[in-house]
């Protein structure tokens, strides 16, 4: 449900066009991105816990990312990007759709938040490496997932942390996330291609090939009583931390 911003070999122009056309409604909690608004607090909880665990920070701190560089890939109009700034990060957001970046910049300016936004390819971003790299609901929208994961790894600083999330490719996700959610209007029609969903095992293999190690994934499940929440059930969606196996070589 986010946008794909990747290397030239993996970007899908029709994906960027699809999400760019929805840019004006991105910040409307009752609009086409309503599901993202419900999902965002769950993702942020996982990210905050991952930050505290990875860097051993004070769980009471309001700005655990102070002094750290953060990259939000497939940032859309900034729904996750802005909270990362409020957590103290020096944040860059990149997205394939120029319409999304225009909305993201306008919203950040209105909120008086300093965010470096870029429209276009991740490979074209000449901004070094980052302590935290996030790509939420993005990998399912790219054509070459291996190239995408490699590009993410190139942006991750030594000792850094990556957080990825994706729908899982299961029978239940096809019935509920694609056929059900789109038929009921919970997400815009054409948002998901179930065949492009990736399983945790497949993602782990891609990350390993890029010299990255995947942590234990957590499910993002739905309960009629509690709504979306972190859970052991990964049938619909999952979120995971990623770290580098070995330090990058100078100049790589």
For this entry, give a set of tags.
252 residues, alpha/beta, Rossmann fold, nine-stranded mixed β-sheet, 9 strands, 22% strand, globular, methyltransferase
Brief characterization of the structure:
The protein has a single domain, classed as 3-Layer(aba) Sandwich (Rossmann fold), CATH 3.40.50. Helices cover 33% and strands 22% of the residues.
Descriptive notes:
The chain has helices at residues 13-20, 34-55, 81-86, 98-110, 145-155, 171-183, 200-209, and strands at 69-73, 90-95, 116-119, 130-136, 156-167, 212-214, 218-223, 227-231, 237-244. With 252 residues, it is α/β, with parallel strands linked by helices. It has a single domain (13-244), classed as Rossmann fold (3-Layer(aba) Sandwich), CATH 3.40.50.150. Strands 1, 2, 3, 4, 5, 6, 7, 8 and 9 form a nine-stranded mixed sheet that branches. It is globular. The model is unreliable at 1-8 (pLDDT under 50).
């Amino acid at each position: 449900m986010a946008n794909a911003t990747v290397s030239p070999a993996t970007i899908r122009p029709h994906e960027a066009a699809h999400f760019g056309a929805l840019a004006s409604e991105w910040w409307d909690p009752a609009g086409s991105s309503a599901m993202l608004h419900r999902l965002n607090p769950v993702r942020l909880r996982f990210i905050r816990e991952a930050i505290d665990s990875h860097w051993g920070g004070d769980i009471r701190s309001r700005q655990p990312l102070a002094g750290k560089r953060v990259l939000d890939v497939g940032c859309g109009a900034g729904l996750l990007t802005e909270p990362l700034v409020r957590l103290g990060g020096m944040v860059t957001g990149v997205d394939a759709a120029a319409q999304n970046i225009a909305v993201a910049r306008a919203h950040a300016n209105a909120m008086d938040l300093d965010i470096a936004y870029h429209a276009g390819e991740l490979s074209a971003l000449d901004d070094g490496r980052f302590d935290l790299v996030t790509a939420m609901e993005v990998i399912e929208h790219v054509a070459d997932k291996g190239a995408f994961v490699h590009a993410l790894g190139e942006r991750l600083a030594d000792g850094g942390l990556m957080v990825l999330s994706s729908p899982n490719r299961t029978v239940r996700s096809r019935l509920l996330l694609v056929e059900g959610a789109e038929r009921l209007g919970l997400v815009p029609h054409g948002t998901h291609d179930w065949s492009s969903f990736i399983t945790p095992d497949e993602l782990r293999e891609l990350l390993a090939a890029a010299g990255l190690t995947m942590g234990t994934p957590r499910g993002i499940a739905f309960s009629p009583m509690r709504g979306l929440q972190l859970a052991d059930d990964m049938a619909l969606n999952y979120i995971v931390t990623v770290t580098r196996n070995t330090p990058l070589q100078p100049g790589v």
